[in-house]
Structure formats: C-alpha cells, structure tokens
Amino acid sequence: MRHITKHFKRLRVSYLKAAFLVIILNIIMIPQYQSVEPEGDTLFKVYMNDEYVGTVGKQTDLDEMLLKARRATASKSESPVMMEVNLRTEGSEVIFGQLDNEEEVFANMVAALEKSVHGGLVPAYTVKIGSHTMNLATLEDVREVLQAAASQYDEKNEYHVLLQRDPNRELNTLTATLGKDEPDAEDKQQPVKTAGMESVFADAFGVAEENSASESFEEYEYGLLDLSYANSIEIVDSYLADDRIMTVEQAVEDITSKQEKNTVYEVKAGDTLSGISMATDIPIEKLISLNDAIEDERSTIRIGQEILISNPEPPLSINRTEQEYIEEDYDAEIIYIDNDEWYTSDQVTRQEPSAGHRNIVAKISYHNEKAVGREVVKEEVVLEAVPKIVERGTKIPPTYIKPVSGGRLSSTFGKRNRPTKGASSNHQGVDWAVAKGTTVMASSGGVVTKAGWAKGYGYVVYIKHPDGKETRYGHLSKVLVSVGQNVKQGEKIALSGNSGVSTGPHLHFEIRVNGTAVNPLKYLN
Fold first, then answer.
1. Residue 131: is its pLDDT beyond 90?
2. What is the dihedral sign for C-alpha 66, 68, 71, 75?
C-alpha cells in the first residue's frame, strides 16, 4: 500500500509539471497562434505583385495597409510616380495558424511596391477629340497643335485657338474653339447721323450704292468666311510618364492624317447604289465588299436600309465656308407633266435638255477638303439652259401576287433540260408542284382573254391586265371563268391539274410584257 501511494505521488508531480509546461508554452505562443471556430477561410497568405509579403488573419485590414504602403512609397519621390499594384491573397481554413506581425507585412509591401516604381510622372495635358486622345507637355503645345490643324485651311492666319474653361464640369476642363481677331473699338468706323431730307437722300443713295455693289462681281470679297472645328475638344490636366507624351510634330501628324473609319448611310427615297457611290466618292465595288446584304451592283436597296460606308477622315476635322467666283455650265431643273391616265411606271421625254452657262458667286461649305453644300449669292446667266420636259403617269400600277398558296417551286424561268418529250427547253414561266385540285387565283385584276384548251399547256386561263401585262395559268384540271369576264386580284379562276404536256400535278404560271415572257418572280409581291 505504501508502494502504491509513493507511485501516485510521482504521477501527480509529473502531471503538475506537464500542466505547468503547457501553460508556459501558451503564454509564449499566444501572439503567433490564433484559435478560431472553422467558419470559412481563417488565414490568408498575402502577395504583392506576385511576391509573398506575409500572412494575416483578416482580409479587411489589407485595404488600409495597402493605402499606407502606397503613400509611403510615393512620399520617397518629389514628383508623382507610377507603380504596379497587384494585391492578391490565398485563403485557407485552419484551427491554429501562425500570423506575421503587421509592421513586418507593411514593410514587405512597401519593399515590393518600391521594386515596381517606373519613375516619376510629369505634369501634362490630355486632349480628347471625340474618342481620340493625345498627350502634350504644355498648354502652348496644345495651342500649337490645334492651330496647325486649322491653319492648313487659313492662309491669312485670321483664326486662332480659343481655350475656355467649361463651367459645367466639376474638374478643371478646357474646351477649344476657333475665333477671328476683331478690330479694336477705336478702329471701328461709326456711322454719321443725318436728319431731315439729308437723311432721306443718304438712305436712298446708300441703298443705291449697295445694289450697285451687289451687281458687280468685283465688289465681292472672296475667300474664307468662317472656320470651325467639327469635333468637340476637351483639355484636362494630367500626370503622365515621359514616354506617353507626344512632341508637337507627332501630335500634328496624329490628328491631321486621314484614318479609315466606317460610318453608316441610311438609304433615302430616290437613292441608287451608283448615286450613293458618287455622293460618297466610294467605288461600288467597295460598297459591295463592305455590305454582305449587297450582292452586286444590281442588288435592290430599300428606303431606311443602313449601308456601311468607308469614310477616311482625320481625328480632328475642320468645317469652313468660302465665298468663290465660279464660271460653270449648269442644267435647268426637269419639268414634269403629270398624266392621270398613265401609271407611275410610264413616262415619256417630251423635250431633251441642253446645258446653259453662267457666272456665279457662291458660299461653299466644306468638311475638310470635301464640299458639302452651296448657296448661290449672285448669278449672271450667259447662256440659258433648256430644261428637260418629262410626261409621267400618276396612277399606281397593279400589283401581282403568287397565284397558289404553298407549293414547291419545281421549275424556274429560262433554260432547262426537257422534263419530258414535247416540253420546252426554254421555260417561259415558273412551276409550283401542288396537289391536283388546288385553288388557282388571279395574280392581278383584269379581263379573261382565253379560257379553255391550248396545245402543250392543257387547260389554260389567260388574263389581260390594265398595265398591258398578261398572265397565263397552265396544266389546269378545271377552268372556272369565261372569256370577257372581269376578275379581281385573288379571285378563284381555276383548279390546278396535270393536263397537257406535264410530268405531274402542278401550276405553270407566266407573266408577259408586250407579248414577251419575263421572269414572274421579279414581279410578284
């Protein structure tokens, strides 16, 4: 019993020693280990620009630490600096984890940022022209570049760059426009006031002098009347690296050189591909290559259709108005005579035109080098132009619809292999394969000129229409109209069949113009 008690005492002493040792270790290791409940990531390894800088227990502390590190890095330079800032963390869920001291993590972040510093930034000006930007060193450089863009159209150097603060912007933003030097107040001539009859004579002679001056081409002032930038221009302060700032020569070349730019043209009434090509100075071949919907020069375009056009322009465009003296041939406006008995598709030229000759003073508007508008101020006709006189119809011509519902287009218009003995190798119409007894409708309103049997066609119906065209319906099984009968568009005139020279149930349909068969598909609505 004594032996057991002695052994128990030894165990008790060992237990107390172990417990004391655990307490001492916990006191020592508390700053490095953190006990947490496992609720997601509890420990984060921090990397700055892919360089490990330490381990923390909370991500929320990193934003403030990064801000301080950037300030500390920037404060070591007298001018603003550029630095790479790419902070990322790798989280893990642990019960106990070793954390780094915040001061140590902060110092490592500063060291990583210092390695990424590219150098000092210098004050500069960023010029925004639409969506195009450029950077220049000084405000004088900005003026010189913008002035160079305008001076190419201003031989007398009458216009200069005006920089004005934009009051609607919170930031320090300047806008650029062009202005013309105005004479000083003392140089302006004040009109002499007169009274009584003297004023009446003065007014009369003044008007006479104005009219006299306007009658002489020599009295007009020719040349530049107005000059302005076509784009909005904004200038803001900025800090940039030296390698991002342009020289004046580079900037002038940058904003005055033409750059290929695709724009959209909306088709208007009366437009044709050739007309759009001439108006935009773009070859038809290029228009076709830019637009998938246009297959060739014969493709149909519709009002409201948007066509992509290539429009090479410099980033900074210039609008200007010039007054010019021009001697030119001209055409008189076409004179139209409306005929209510004719269709709009009918017209006849009653008088051929002949060009005239005239001298004019005109205000011509330019967008860069391209003339975009003209206002005639004075005109002197040397030789009167003879106008073209055209008589045209006003009635809307009849339309044509598909004469059957559904069906498969089994044979098209034109040359083909003979489908059976006796059939034509030059198909005069189109065929739709339909079941026997399918309703056949009048493609357009008119008068029935044939209803019965025709060689090769089998049972047929021919209809003459008010615009002179004729439609034919062949291989019918039953005719439901008679010669001389008036039918309306869409009216039931027959049943389809397989009569005559035929390889199966179908409808043969023709449209003839002046007795000549044409492709019906080009006329159907």
1. no
2. negative
Of 55, 37, 47, nearest in space to 96 by CA: 37
Interatomic CA distance for residues 61 and 109, integer angstroms: 13
Contact 41, 92 (CB under 8 A): yes
What is the total residue count of the chain?
Answer: 525
Q: Which two tokens stand for residue 300?
A: 């149909």
Q: How far apart are CA 78 and CA 312, in angstroms?
A: 45
How many of the other CB atoms lie within 10 Å of CB of 497? 24
Per-residue pLDDT of 213-246, as tens digits, reads 456 899 999 999 999 999 999 999 988 888 889 9
Alpha carbons 163 and 234: distance in angstroms, whole number: 9
What does the block give as tokens for 144?
Answer: 């010189």
183 or 476: which carries more pLDDT confidence?
476
Contact in structure between 133 and 127 (CB atoms under 8 Å):
yes
At residue 26 the predicted structure's pLDDT band, cuts being 50, 70 and 90, is low
Give the C-alpha separation, 47 to 52, whole Å: 4
Token readout for 472 is 């034919």
Burial 369-387 (b: 16+ CB within 10 A, else e): eeeeeeeeeeeeeeeebeb
Q: Strand ranges (DSSP E) for 57-183?
A: 81-82, 87-92, 119-120, 122-129, 132-136, 159-165, 173-180
Is the CA virtual torsion 422, 427, 429, 431 positive or negative?
positive
The pair of structure tokens assigned to 202 is 């003065």
Up-side HSE of residue 10: CA atoms within 13 Å toward CB?
A: 6
CA of 388: how far to CAs of 274, 335, 343, 505, in Å? Answer: 22, 6, 20, 53
| Rounded Cα–Cα distance for residues 389 and 363 (Å) | 30
DSSP assignment of 102-128? HHHHHHHHHHHHHHH--EE-EEEEEEE
DSSP 456-514: TTEEEEEEE-TTS-EEEEEEEEEE---TT-EE-TT-EEEEEB--SS-SSSBEEEEEEET
User: What are 333-373's pLDDT values in tens digits?
Assistant: 999 999 999 988 889 999 999 999 999 999 999 999 989 89
Are 330 and 385 contacting, i.e. CB atoms less than 8 angstroms apart? yes
Using the structure block, give the residue that is written with the tokens 């030119």.
328
The three-state (H, E, C) secondary structure of 261-320, written as one string: CEEEEECCCCCCHHHHHHHHCCCHHHHHHHCCCCCCCCCCCCCCCEEEEECCECCCCEEE
**Rounded Cα–Cα distance for residues 120 and 241 (Å):** 7
Tokens of 237: 């302060």
pLDDT band, residue 181 (cuts 50/70/90)? low
